[in-house]
Amino acid sequence: MASSSSTPLHIVDQDNDEFDWEAAVREIDVACAQTTTSSTNYCANNGSNHVINGKIPTYTSSNPRIQETHKKSVPNQSNFAYFASSSRQLTLDRFIGIVPRNSNGHQREKHCNGFLKNKNNNFNSNCQINVGNSGEGQKGQAEDEEENVGFVKIDPEAAKTWIYPVNIPLRDYQLNITRTALFSNTLVALPTGLGKTLIAAVVMYNYFRWFPEGKIVFAAPSRPLVLQQIEACHNVVGIPQEWTIDLTGQTSPTRRADHWRSKRVFFVTPQVLEKDIYSGSCLVKHLVCLVVDEAHRATGNYSYCVAVRELMAVPVQLRVLALTATPGSKQQTIQHVIDNLQISRLEYRSESDPDVIPYVHDRKIELIEVAMGNDAVEINNLILEVIRPYVARLSAIGVLKNRDCQTLSPCDLLNSRDKFREAPPENLPHIKYGEVEGYFGVLITLYHIRKLLSSHGIKPAFEMLAEKLQQGSFARFMSRNEVLLKAKLLMQQSISHGAPSPKLSKLLEVLVDHFKMKDPLESRVIIFSNFRGSVRDIMNALKDIGEFVKATEFVGQTSGKALKGQSQKVQQAVLQKFRAGGYNVIVATSIGEEGLDIMEVDLVICFDANISPLRMIQRMGRTGRKHEGRVVVLACEGSELKGYMRKQANSKAIKKHMRNGGANSFQFHSSPRMIPHVFKPEVQFVELSIEQFVPRVKKVNDDDQPIQSPAYKAKLTDAENDLLSKYFSTTRENTWKPSLIAFPHFQAFPSRVHKVLHSFRTGILIDAMQCLQGLPFSTCSTAVKVEDSASPEPCSASEALVQCNGKIKETSTSGDFPIEDCIREVSLASLEPKEDLRTREDSYALGSQGSQCKNLVHSFLFSSGLISVDDLGTVQVLSVSQFPVKEVLLSKIMTTGRAAPFYHLKQNIACIDASTDVCEERVGNAKDDSMSQIRSSQDDKDCAFKLNSCNASGEKTLGEIILETPIPKPMSDGGESINNSPEDRAPMLFAAEANDDPMDVEFSPRLTNFMESGIVPESPISSSGMPEIQRDDIMVPDLVSTPMVHAQSVVKYLGQNEINVTSSLTNDISAKQMKNSTPASKFRTPTVDECRSPFIKSPDIGFSKDWQLNPGGNSHGVKQRRKFKRLRKHGDLCRVKPQDCKEQTSGPTRNFTSSSVGADDGQNHHHRGAKFISNRAKLFVEDEAEVSLEVMVSSDEEDEQEDNSYEDSFIDDRINPTAKSTQAEESGIDMMAVYRRSLLSQSPLVGVANFSEDFTPSSDVPRNERASTSGSESHLVQKPENGLESTARNSASLHFNLDRVSSDALLSRITTSPKEQKSKMENRKRKLFCKSGFLPVHNLEKEFFIGSVASGHDSMLHEQTDKIQENSKTFLDNDITENRNIFDDDQFYNAIDLDAIEEQAAKLIGFKTDYSKQNQVPIAEPVPVNPSLLGSPSFDLGI
Amino acid sequence: METSFDSDLIGEIFKRIWRRRAAERERNEVTEAPDTEVGVGTPKKSRPTLANAKALKLSSELLRLFVTEAVQRAAMIADAEGASTIEATHLERILPQLLLDF
């Protein structure tokens, strides 16, 4: 209305030829026809309008279009008369072509007048304003035209047709109604279940097509209905979902504004529509269609009315389609709806209409009269008694017309009261007004209670009464009314009595009958009650009825006083469950009546009958939709029944009004034809393809997942999707999460890595896991226990260790067992690289501790044993406790510790050897064990063997380390040393190489861990050595390791001899040296391989410490050598595994023997060593090995073992002092080379004894190395652990034998004078450095040389005799060793060992080459050994 | 450098997580101290966490390494077991150490 459209239109109208005059005339005619009819009725009815109507005719002449707009926009009925008259005039004017300008203003006035009159009767002022505006009417017809069509363009193509979907079987009445609804505002009154929604959807769809930019609104009175209708509409015509949106109060206004802009079809609640129209966010100008569901609500100031009023006020042209099943119970209310919604047509179908009947299912309505209970009757009478005086009083005043208190209803009272308020009787004094009001209030309450009593039972009535008596005016009037109190008491009694109300019992009866006839699982029942209190009563009653009734309540949101309501969520859930069968009975209040598409219900029970027919129809509409249904109405005798009957009669009367489109009963409003007449849409039946409806609400809740998932799923294969669904279900709670604790056993060992190495923290984790899973210290032997005891106390432990050693010595068997245990442990550790590493670490740690004290070293050894204590075959990780110690000591300790473990290993081996037969057998077993076959077979022995093998593996690792170290040696060492070194190196290299592969793989993680833990600092040394060294360098480290082994052996001997303090000292020195060497080796190892690196690192650390400890460069050199020796020993041990271990053990034994001999009885040592060697050789020969020799050796071995252990400790000590990392390495390397050279050259030249001694250790070492090499070989063949070396078993054994022999020889030599050996060692080592204490190193070197020689011999022998066993047996070395063993070591040593060894070494080199050339694995192994021996040259080359 | 993950994707993932975290934090704060002054905390809360391009690139690479390593290690386990496909169980075995390695 506010717009100025009216006046200008005339002019333009005239000027505009495009105006569709014909259409206009037609419309006008229609309008006239309607208005004439309606106006007559209207005028008769409404007096107030008459005045206006009377005025209106005076204002004639206006554009018909304007009239139309006015008609549309003005909701007031009063306009009709005016329009009717004016429109006629206008048509005349049209035809005449005269448009009086003034009329615009007038018309406007009228228009405004009409509109305003609706509200305020404020006529004049608006008229004036409008008149003022009327002058400027230039906008013309174009705008009018535009307005006519709306602000929205029409798609002319689409407008040629209108589409009716035939997806659903066509129903004529729906088609007809739809056709009507498309072209005029229509009120569709169809019984429930006859497809109102389809009509609405089709209309919406066609408007959607016709107006590409138009917006369509579907309003439904509640949110559930909105959601239901959006889906229903979609399923009918399939308006693309991207254009549809549901807007409810849950959507925020800002989002709604966005949606109003971006979407085209809106499903809204009327409240939202009203608000958004007010706020302007609803783009009203683009609205083309408004569908109003449940239109009977459009009365009063309900949002429907307000919204439509606002839309008309804009004005906007739109099609209104109103849907209802029950337009109203009275003609008047229907008229109100028509007015409020600007309806121009009424389409009414009743169930009895011929075109509807085929689609209506039979619906039986039963009225069951229920007699009131006696109590209720009595109470009712009492209440009536209370009521009567008040009614009498009111009727006396004349306020109440009806004197029959029986028939009065609360409604009557309300009406009377309203009337009284509007026009109180004149004769009544004002003072009485309050009294009358009070009477009314009391009466209303009482009647309400009475109604409750009759329709719902005593209990609700009692509650109501009790509540009312609490407060308010009713309490004031009634609290002392005895009759009422009596009634209340009666009610109370009745309730406490528990007698159910007759209605309730009848209801249960009906229900039980129903479920007897129908399947409780399939059938659904709704019970309607108007009163929430009775819903609860019904629920309580249904609880007892039986299993087959699963009842729930369905009540509204607003919570009353006592009873909580249900949120919409709960409501939805209830409906969902009801549909799914979770419930089969719903007890509902009026909320269940309307619209909600509660699935097909078989039975509807109306608990109270006295309700409006409209609601009764809705209730009945819940059933009989798809198949037959049944409605049971429970009515109480008396007032309720009467009321029901009356209302049914009313509804029938209404139907009469509705006949014939209501043309005779109602006034209708003109409505715009949205489609210009140029378009004459023809119906087109189309089969629409409707996409699956995707509920938007769920979308929002699920974060768009259901929509997105198909997108990516489409790109994946089925298998991938299956995999995804296996671990990631759509519901978030069930998403699979990987477990970190699922495989604890896997966490005890470092997993294999790809590119990212394990971190320090992983190491900690592994250690922790190992601790947690740690095998118990099951001490097989007491000695182990002793060791354990010793280990805890490092310093004091030394004595204890010594004692233990002594004990061990004393009880060879017992000692053997512990040793075996240790060995087993070690072996186990070696077997499991991780474990081995740990054990080694532990041992290192122990060694580090021991480094300070020789005794400590022993303790460490013991501790290591403790750690690794395993039962027979079981592989056990070292004890965790040791690890921390290691960690504490870390660098130094690590090196020392490592040396110590090696020593331990060696010692263990020696011990094993000491147990001659056993050892031999064990060795054989060990080989087998290495094969991993024997483990189970032989218990302790096997274990020992395994241990040996483990040790061998550890030695291998050491060897690897040593290999790295060798480079420094060659670098620093002189020719002699070089010569020696090469030999040593060669074996070392072999061992190292052999070791490297397995070791690297196995150790890598640990090594990395070590590196990270702090070993890294040492790495530089390794790096320095690395470049030159590499594998050749590795050879050197092997050599170093051999010296280490020698030193260890010496130490062992010393340890065995305990008595020899000097030896212990030497051992310490050697140990230091060993340490140094070990670090060097460690360093080298890292360079060579990561696996090696960790070891290397640890040794490096040790070296660094050693370095620090060592004041002089000489010491460094010595240390280096020693380190190398250690490394070699380690490597040898590791590589050789069983064989190596044996050899090493023999070596150490020899060394020990030599040292011991030097100190005590060299012969014994030599013998031992020889025996060991022989044993070892035999062992290596193993399968073929001679038991006798082994036995011989075994006896010696026992001693040797003891010696070895001591030696190891000593060696460790030595290592510590020698420790100087880089210098040590280099010097060590040099030293090694020098030693080797010296050994080679000197051994024969210089005091043979010395050399021999030195060599013996060295030889031992070489043996060890060789053993390691051979061990590697043996590993390949014999020892599966070494795998790589396994092929070379025979050769390895030969080498070992040779080594052993050489070592034995060396030992023998050493036996002559261990001190001399030491001195020699020192001389050798310190030829450069000048330190006597380093003799062991010399020895080691010598040993290496010897070993190399021996190896060479071995290799020679091997070459000569392909049969390794035979070779081993036949080998001169073996023989020599045996002889030596048998004979005095000194003699052996003196005899030829050194020279022979050297010669042999030279030969060996050649042989090695040859061997290497030879494809035979054993040979090949020897060959590598030879090369290693030759390696001295190779080292030289490296240098 | 090999092609790494799409840093935009990584960025989106990060943002998603940040958003969720922020929401959780807000919720927690609201529940914990609903009466605390809102004015102080709001600007900080409302500020979204950001990562610049280089950081995202680096993160992408790190994630790529992580994933590759995880897959490779799991593959080794699977291979050792003779399985042709990597199952979750294989991943679980290497996961603890893998997590510690990164």
Q: What would your notes on this structure say?
A:
The complex is a heterodimer of chains A (1439) and B (102). Chain A is mainly alpha-helical and 1439 residues long. In chain A, 68% of the residues lie in helices and 5% in strands. Chain A has 58 helices and 15 strands. In chain A, strand 13 (603-606), helix 26 and strand 14 form a beta-alpha-beta unit. Chain A starts with 5 loop residues before the first helix and ends with a helix. Mean pLDDT of chain A is 56; it is low at 1-18, 35-150, 697-709, 776-1231, 1238-1393 and 1411-1439. Chain B has one domain. Helix content of chain B is 76%, strand content 0%. Chain B has helices spanning 7-32, 38-46, 53-81, 88-101. In chain B, helix 1 (7-32) packs across helix 3 and helix 3 crosses helix 4 (88-101). The radius of gyration of chain B is 20 Å and the shape is elongated. Mean pLDDT of chain B is 78; it is low at 33-43. At the A-B interface, helix 31 of A face helix 3 and helix 4 of B.
* Most residues in contact: chain pair: A-B, 24 and 21 residues
Q: Low-confidence parts of chain A, pLDDT < 50 over ≥5 residues?
A: 1-18, 35-150, 697-709, 776-1231, 1238-1393, 1411-1439
The secondary-structure element order of chain B is HHHH
Instruction: Calculate the terminal CA-CA distance of chain A, rounded to whole Å.
Output: 109 Å
Number of helices of chain B: 4
Please report the distance between the alpha carbons of the first and last residues of chain B. Answer: 20 Å
User: In which range does the helix fraction of chain B lie?
Assistant: over 70%
Total number of domains of chain B: 1
Main sheet specs of chain B: none
Using only C-alpha atoms, the radius of gyration of chain B works out to 20 Å
> Strands of the largest sheet of chain A, in order across it?
4-5-3-6-7-2-8
Label the overall shape of chain A: globular
Roughly what fraction of the amino acids of chain A lie in strands?
5-15%
Describe the main β-sheet of chain A briefly. Answer: 7 strands, parallel
Number of strands of chain A: 15
Structural class determined from secondary elements of chain A: mainly alpha
Number of strands of chain B: 0
Radius of gyration of chain A over all CA atoms, rounded: 56 Å
Q: What integer is the average pLDDT of chain B?
A: 78
Protein name (chain A): DEAD-box ATP-dependent RNA helicase FANCM isoform X2
Subcellular location (chain A): Nucleus
GO molecular function (chain A): 3'-5' DNA helicase activity; ATP binding; four-way junction DNA binding; four-way junction helicase activity; hydrolase activity
InterPro entries (chain A): FANCM/Mph1-like_ID, FANCM_DEXDc, Helicase/UvrB_N, Helicase_ATP-bd, Helicase_C-like, P-loop_NTPase
